[in-house]
Amino acid sequence: MTGFDFAAWPPTLTEAQLEELSVYATTYALSHGLLYLPPAPSLPKVPTAAIHAPLALFPSPLPRKLFEQATRLQRIYNVLYSRVALDDEFLDQVMGVETGVGKVDDFIGQLWRGWKALRDEGIDQSLHLGIFRSDYLLHSPNGETPELKQVEFNTISSSFGPLSQRVSELHRYLLSTTGYFNTSPYLSLENLPPNQTISGVAAGLAAAHSAYSASTSNARILVVAQDNERNVFDQRWLEYELLNKHSIRMIRRTLTQLQKVAKVDSTTRKLFIDVPKDLEASGSIEISVIYFRAAYTPHDFPTPAYYATRFLLERSTAIKCPSLALQLAGGKKVQEVLTQAGVLERFLADGKKYHEVFSKEEIQELRDSFMAMWGLDVGDDLLTPDGQAIQAGKENFGVRKAREEAQVLVLKPQREGGGNNVYKQDIPAFLDTLPPQERQAWIAMQLIVTPADVGNYLIRAGSTTGSSDIQAPVRTNVISELGIFGWSIFGKEGGHSHVKEDTMGWLVRTKGTDSNEGGVATGFSVLDSLLLV
Ligand code: ADP
Ligand code: MG
Ligand code: MG
């Protein structure tokens, strides 16, 4: 259908309708594992209570052709980032400690050094697994027809696949059981696209598992979890799917635990996890795939021993999701470098290097999904090697441009997980205090201008224990961020890269327009689904 009125979304509900819908929604969420562990200073070892994840009551509208476009682009993005991860020379240059971001960003530098040390020993990954999520917002400056623009591409710990499937199912259920009180003709099942992220992500993990262990049926997939993870149900759904559909078992450990129990055999380089004999007779479990839902932020590495453990895992023959190379490939700096002239062509159009190349039109469509970006260090030749401006008071091009255009920009460091960016009016003061040598760690990105006035009703659990009544949800003006999930298994054989990939489900996170940041885990956003219009 065309002519959808975004400003009139969602339909206005009466108080009675809103309450009815809220009860259906939260009880469905609680019954179907659309859950979070409640916030607590330290989480109990044995959880006994959960709260429902923050939710939108209505699905959020998105033009059908932009959803199709995002889904179509995922295949090229899967291949692109796989090839970036296989290009040591490129990653050394962009992320390494000699010429790249690793020079000025300690976290990136540590990861890169660990990877380089293994390569110097002759240890390379035969196969890598990526579980990706490419995130988009609609860009509609001056109310123009909205276009799809990429926010970022995640190569590590891409989360909320399973819970987003549950929210899609929730909105279908609300439609089936209440008809949303016939408040909109757009609310029909054919406008709510299916979302099979759980089976999709599990299929990626299972494919890597069988690539590793055709012979060793006892190997398990290791989930590396954060110490105080509250988003455990999103991870458990994958565990249950792997067990039920693929007969593959998972084991969860934190980096803290792994310091003591991870062992890599010195000849075979197989990874084993020690477990008490009363739990597993052999006292040790072989690992086929390491799925990182941690290790993406410096907070996950409080001491050097944590880095040593991360590199021990990398040394093993278990397939990493992601490898250090693939984690580095997901850096914001790489995203910016990909916008530079000729870089996409290097990875997508070089027929001498790659069996499969992409057409000019396909590459153009990918490029059209980029916003303008540049490094804050552009024009840094004005600096002396110790980072002093040659002419006092004179700023390099990258910083000057960021200052001039601050109102339409976001600055991003090489971090994941939300809460790290600097927006608009905060930019000039931030630039005043940024030491010149740290410019290289930051990119400037033009802000995506989302269509105004779309609304939704958002529900968050009312108290930390989930026991008190929720506040009646109120209509809020919102921005919705679409994420498309893809996976990829790749490696080099006889010098040639090969990539097997697939596109599966999607995620919508919706936040109030008063927040610059997104992120469900950080408390800014709620989980949502799609209404195709
Ligand atoms: P992270 O890896 O921490 O999730 P993101 O690049 O996704 O970092 O930025 C966090 C949030 O900031 C996004 O979810 C989005 O809401 C907002 N954001 C990031 N880039 C832009 C942009 N170019 N325009 C508008 N909002 C943005
Ligand atoms: Mg993000
Ligand atoms: Mg990210």
TrEMBL record:
It comes from the Eukaryota. Its EC number is 6.3.2.3. Substrate binds at residues 133, 156-159, 229-231, 235, 293-296, 509, 520-521. InterPro entries: Glutathione_synthase (IPR005615), Glutathione_synthase_a-hlx (IPR014042), Glutathione_synthase_C_euk (IPR014709), Glutathione_synthase_N_euk (IPR014049), GSH-S_sub-bd_sf (IPR037013), GSH_synth_subst-bd (IPR004887), PreATP-grasp_dom_sf (IPR016185). Keywords: ATP-binding, Glutathione biosynthesis, Ligase, Magnesium, Metal-binding, Nucleotide-binding. Mg(2+) binds at E152, N154, E416. Pathway: Sulfur metabolism; glutathione biosynthesis; glutathione from L-cysteine and L-glutamate: step 2/2. This is Glutathione synthetase. It comes from Agaricus bisporus var. burnettii (strain JB137-S8 / ATCC MYA-4627 / FGSC 10392) (White button mushroom).
